Amino acid sequence: MKSKDRAVMRVLSGEKIWPPPIWMMRQAGRYLPEYREVRAKAKNFLDFCYSPDLATEVTLQPIRRYGFDASILFSDIFVVPDAIGYPVRFEEGRGPVLEPLSSELIDRLEQNKAEDHLKPVIETVSRLRADLPEETTLLGFCGAPWTVACYSVAGHTTQDQVAARVGAYKDPDLMQRFIDELITASIAYLIRQLDAGADALQIFDTWAGVLDDAGFRRWCIEPTRKIVDGVKAARPDAKIIGFPKASSARMQAYIKGTGVDAVGFDWTAPDHLALEIQKQVPIQGNLDPMRLVAGGKALEDGVQHILKTFDKGPFIFNLGHGVTPDADPDNVARMVEMVKQG
């Protein structure tokens, strides 16, 4: 089967398919007991991401269990800064911790180290394409530069990314230098994922929504545009989904400014805005992940509403953000069943 014949790829090319194809962000994760068993075999999270054996296994688990129409590479957005020499570690109960951003740190970054450093991740992509069902789309991804950089200013995430916003206002040149390094590394990384077997790509900008208009243009749209342009200059047929979380009111500007082929919406997006965008590009989303925790009528009402609302154009069913560790696997099964019934 050719990549373009897979259901998700057909939607990304502008085709309406009903029932819509379905996958969910973070579908390989802690809500699954089989994931937790495999995770225990790695001494830390980055080692987990860099193990083709473990990463391939956990990526395949939700495909076996639920039959999702797309599989997304199990990795992390912080492998990119890690690959060019930006100090990254993961702490239990805290998540990613980066060394605070400085000019000296940026001076020490080495783009030429990234290819060798990321070989295990690229091997995982190749294994996945060989092991996945023919009809399953394989998605590669990277974090958008702003979202990755958010964790670097204070060294960790802060409420509403206050530290990153203040840092970008006080020293925009320093932030720009780091963003530019991330753009360069991300382009090369995404191209390698495509060459290894990924059918399409997604760019996650989880913290786009905290920016003001000027910041959104500079730190969200412009870096994403450069990544999209860089990937498509090398691989013109590449399909790229943009996910600027909490940015539905700016989605028109985002699409026009970045050149992405499709966009994902979070659960706060008003239906009328998403419907307008659906007339221009394929859309993806946008069930509140908490409905998978609640289950029952709350889940069924949410799924039914989305299916009834977005049935007029190209649409991929997904969550409005990643599935959470407290989601019930049986609720995920019910969601998939409802979507496949249309």
Number of domains: 1
Low-pLDDT residue intervals, each spanning 5 or more residues: none
Q: Which strand order do you get reading across the main beta sheet?
A: 1-4-5-6-7-8-9
Report the oligomer. single chain
Number of helices: 17
The secondary structure category is: alpha/beta
Name given to the CATH architecture: Alpha-Beta Barrel
CATH domain fold name = TIM Barrel
**Strand elements, count:** 9
Question: Which helices and strands appear, and what pairs or packs with what?
Answer:
Elements: H1 7-12, H2 33-39, H3 45-49, H4 52-66, E1 70-72, H5 79-83, E2 88-91, E3 95-98, H6 103-107, H7 114-117, H8 119-131, E4 137-143, H9 145-153, H10 162-170, H11 172-196, E5 200-205, H12 213-234, E6 240-244, H13 251-258, E7 262-264, H14 271-278, E8 283-287, H15 290-294, H16 296-309, E9 315-319, H17 329-341
Parallel strand pairs: 1-4, 4-5, 5-6, 6-7, 7-8, 8-9
Antiparallel strand pairs: 2-3
Helix pairs in contact: 2-4, 4-8, 9-10, 9-11, 10-11, 11-12, 12-13, 16-17
